[in-house]
Structures are given as C-alpha cells and as structure tokens.
Specification:
With 542 residues, this protein is an alpha+beta fold. 32% of the residues lie in helices and 25% in strands. The chain is built from 18 helices and 28 strands. Strand 23 and strand 24 form a beta hairpin. The longest helix is centred in the N-terminal third of the chain and has 19 residues. The radius of gyration is 27 Å and the shape is globular. About 3% of the residues have low confidence.
C-alpha cells in the first residue's frame, strides 16, 4: 500500500492495527492511495480475477474511512474490450463504465462482476431482475426465468412487498464451486459447471436460489441488533443468527414446496434428513441456539474434532425450531396467523434505516401475533436445550415421525436371531474417519468410552487391514455387544484397544403423513404448505 499527495509526492503510511493504517499527510488535503489485492480467492466468493472475468466483493476490496462512511462514492472500471459489467450498484448516468453508490455500506454490499458472461433480464411485478451467468454452461433461459419468478413471487407473498428497485442474481458455474452469499439487492451463487443442465443438480440449486433470495428481507433489510449498524473494524455479535440463517433455512424448501418446484414428498424427505441430523448431534444437549449464534466467531466458524459433541448449527437447528415455532403459532391462532405474519410485521417495524431488533422484540412479535405467551417455548428451545418432541407439532398438520427400518437383507446381517423387520440395532462404533485417521469421536459412543481419540490412525480391525471405504462393511459382521480389537497409531506409537460395540437403531427417521387425517389436520396442512392434502388433490384431478 502506498500514499501520495496532490503533487504525486509519496507520503509515509504505517499500519496501526490489524486492518487500519495511518497516513502522515504533512498538510495535504488531497490524498491518493494505491494498493494491490490478492485476487485468486473464488471459493469464498470474495475476489477472483483471471482472463475471463474479475469478481470483486466490496468488503474485501475497498478501504474503509469512518468519517466518509455516509459519503457518495464512485467506482470507475477499466476493463478489456468486450467485457461487460454486472452489479446491484447503479450505473453513472453519463458513464457506462462507472458505478455509483450513495454511501460505503451500499458499496461494499454490492459485488461487481466484470468480464465475459451471459445476462438474462426479466421483470416481476414491474421490477427489473437480472441473472448473470459466468462459466457459460448450457441452460434453458425460459426455464430459469420461469422458476426464478416462482421463487420471487412466493417470497414476496410472505414479506408483503419488494424492498429494491432492481435485483441481480450472480451465478458462477465451475467445478469445485458451491454456496452463496447474500447482498443488499443481489446475491452471488456458486455451483458446479453442469448444474443448470442436470435436472437433479438443478433442483438442488433452486434451494440455493430460494435461500439466498430470502435473505433479501431476512438479514439485508430486517437485521438483528449487533448487526445494525455493522462495525467493519471488529466482530459483530448477536444471539439471533438462528433467525437470520435458521429461519431462512426453514423457508428455503418450504417456499419450493409452496411454489410447486419441489413435490410434497420431496419436501417431507428433506424434512426427514433435517430431523435425523438433529438426533445424530450430541451437541444439542449442551449448546442452545442463542449460544450457537453468539459464539459463531469462536465455535461455529472454527470447528474442531469435538465440535459435533458440544455445538449445534444455528442453520439446521434454527430451521427446526423455526418450523415448530411456525406450527405452534398456527395452533394458537387456528391457522389465522403464522411465522409468515410475524416476519412481515417485523420487516415493517424495523426498517433498515432504524435500529435492529432484539431477542425480546422477536419474542414480543410472536406473542402479539399469536395472542399467547411463548416464554416457556423460548426458554426451552431457544435459550435452553430441551429435547424436541416432534410429534407434538407434526401431528397438527397430519404428519408423524417414524423409523424407516431395514430388512435383514438390507443390513447385510446373517445372524439367524435377527427379526425380518428389524426392531433390532446395528453395531455402533461412534467415530468418523478421514482416510484412516479418526476425525471425530461421538461422546456417547463406544470408541470414545474406550479411549479412541481424533488423530488416531487405524490400521486394522481384529487383525484385518482397514481400508477407509470398508469400515461399514466391517461393522456389518458384528452384533451390538461384540468385542472389536482396534490396532492403531497414536503419535507414531503402535497401540491396541478392545472396544465393546454399542447399539444404533437400524434405520433412519422418516416424516410421513398419517393414514386417516382429520379435517382439521388437512386444513392445517393446506394452510402451511399451501397445497391440498394429496388424496384430495387426486380427487380434484378426477
């Protein structure tokens, strides 16, 4: 980094903090600063430059000067011939190569894509939308527009109105890319090269679109305290990331189901996977959603081998609690209100130009809309770690939680005592491997109790060489209660342990519809997922 005055004389510049510098101006009023940026960091969606494009996310590119945070800014772009510019920022009225921002906050919340890319334009409710695609994969333009419109329109229904004048979906398509980052009136989404041309991958990609676009309201407009105003010089803490990310995750697939982009069966399958993760995670017994949110900087963002035993994800756990909160509101109001209404009211009550909402504000909004106290609910499932009895809420909409069992043939067992439909259990070791190295050990599992630890390198099981891919095959030969001899290296020293295997239920949890729903359940189901009960739908078609 270098600094110069108006006469191009170099000025002394010194670093004064982890992300701050001081310039000795020597009385100069006009200062020019030059600096170079490392721009080969595409997977974190911050900055990347090659011979086809330059992607720039403002918070990792532009310097911050506190006194000028609210000053209007311009970004003048010099690019190779034929490259085009896409951004949520407005273009200068008299210079197509200059972008303008009303202040620093808008500047750094509006990524810029410069290069060779496709641009699809369409409107929703008279508002312009764009889809920028870098990577030139094959795709069906009309299908993209049709599906994106369905997501946009369904989410506008939830929130009530559009909060932007123009919106830009940015897509990077290249092998090894995944994930997305929300911005003020745009999002950058990354996916593998063939996603837009592969039906299975495309369906999954629509989930990313739904998630990132939902953030247009939830986070980019409606913000919790601790994130508004945002402090660019240090970490920002809040207990409400479970609402920011968890509630968004809950609506991600629900919006697809409501809009018909995901079948109801597919939605129940995704819900089943979510609930399975809940029961598999021992951390749910120790860390609350509020703690997970507040400690994101030191725990969620910096996982260690013991994290699965001590932490929860404010994404998945937040989605689960958002779901049961939604269903409880519907129960208390006889389906006259829902979490949709709570979010819409908060969006209007806490504009981006004002203050962020607090945990108390969120609970108060729920209680106001429902007309009931939710103190015990928040104490149990948000600030506490009470185990969730899902059937209490699933039953309201005609659903239930069952165990999908495996047959003897499915599990590969040869034990004659094993029932045909297993109410039995699989042999359970309780560890995860990265290659042959133990990456994590479940605190409720036999391996942990026997003394096996992360970092141990397993060589053999019962004197037979272990290959990383055949651990499950090994376990199929055992019954809960059997002894297993593990030979392993620990810090280059050869060791052995005998482990008595535990029991893991044979099969997975599955959300299913009840066989004989009541009229109240069918009505609640339709209100929630915005689709008729399946058998009624078939009747309507006939």
């Amino acid at each position: 980094m270098r600094a110069f005055n108006a006469t191009n004389t170099a000025l002394l510049i010194e670093k004064s903090g982890k992300s701050s510098w001081e310039i000795k101006t020597e009385g100069s009023r006009d200062i020019r600063v030059e600096y170079k940026i490392y721009a080969n960091s595409i997977t974190d969606r911050t900055r990347h430059v090659d011979d086809t494009h330059a992607f720039l996310s403002g918070s990792s590119i532009f310097l911050y000067e506190k006194k000028r945070r609210h000053s209007p800014l311009e970004v003048k772009i010099e690019a190779p011939q034929g490259w085009r510019i896409s951004s949520g920022l407005a273009f200068h009225p008299s210079n197509k190569n200059t972008l303008i921002a009303p202040d620093y906050d808008v500047l750094v919340d509006s990524p810029i894509e410069i290069g060779v890319h496709d641009l699809i334009r369409f409107e929703v409710q008279g508002t312009p939308h764009e889809i920028m695609i870098w990577g030139a994969p094959r795709y069906d333009e009309s299908k993209l527009i049709q599906d994106f419109k369905k997501i946009i329109e369904k989410q506008i229904e939830i929130w009530g109105r559009i909060p932007y004048e123009r919106y830009v979906f940015m897509i990077h398509a290249a092998d090894g890319l995944r994930g997305g980052t929300e911005h003020l009136n745009s999002t950058i989404m990354q996916t593998s090269y063939g996603t837009l041309d592969d039906p299975k991958l495309y369906d999954r990609f629509l989930g990313l679109v739904s998630h990132e676009f939902f953030h247009t309201w939830n986070v980019k407009q409606l913000r919790p305290d601790g994130l508004l105003p945002y402090d660019y010089q240090k970490e920002n803490y809040t207990k409400l990331l479970w609402v920011c990310e968890g509630t968004t995750s809950y609506y991600t697939d629900l919006v697809l189901a409501r809009s018909g982009l995901k079948t109801e069966t597919q939605y129940l399958e995704s819900l089943s996977k979510l609930l399975n993760r809940y029961f598999e995670n021992e951390g749910r017994k120790l860390q609350s959603l509020e703690e997970s949110s507040f400690d994101s900087w030191i725990k969620f963002s910096r996982p260690n081998p013991h994290s699965p035993n001590t932490t929860v994800s404010f994404y998945s756990q937040g989605a689960i609690v958002s779901m049961i909160l939604d269903l409880e509101i519907r129960k208390q109001t006889s389906n006259q209100a829902s979490l949709d209404v709570v979010l819409r009211n908060l969006f209007e009550q806490f504009p981006l130009s004002g203050e962020g909402f607090s945990p108390t504000d969120f609970q108060s909004a729920v209680e106001k809309i429902s007309g009931s106290s939710f103190s015990q609910f928040f104490q149990d499932y948000v600030s506490g770690v009470k185990q969730i009895d899902f059937d209490l809420w699933l039953n309201l909409v005609g659903l239930q939680l069952e165990r999908k069992t495996e047959t003897k043939e499915d599990s590969g067992k040869t034990n004659e005592n094993l029932p045909e439909e297993t109410e039995s259990f699989k042999a359970f070791l309780g560890l995860s491997l990265n290659g042959n190295t133990v990456s994590s050990v479940k605190s409720d599992g036999p391996a942990f109790l026997a003394g096996l630890a992360s970092g141990d390198e397993i060589l053999a099981i019962d004197q037979r060489r272990l290959r990383p891919s055949n651990l499950e095959d090994h376990l199929k030969k055992y019954t809960p209660g059997d002894l297993m001899q593990i030979t392993f290296f620990r810090r280059s020293k050869l060791k052995e342990l005998k482990i008595r295997l535990g029991r893991k239920p044979n099969g997975s949890l599955k959300v299913t519809r009840v066989s004989n729903p009541t009229d109240a359940q069918k009505k609640a189901y339709k209100s929630w997922i915005q689709q008729p009960w399946p058998k009624e739908k078939q009747t309507q078609k006939l």
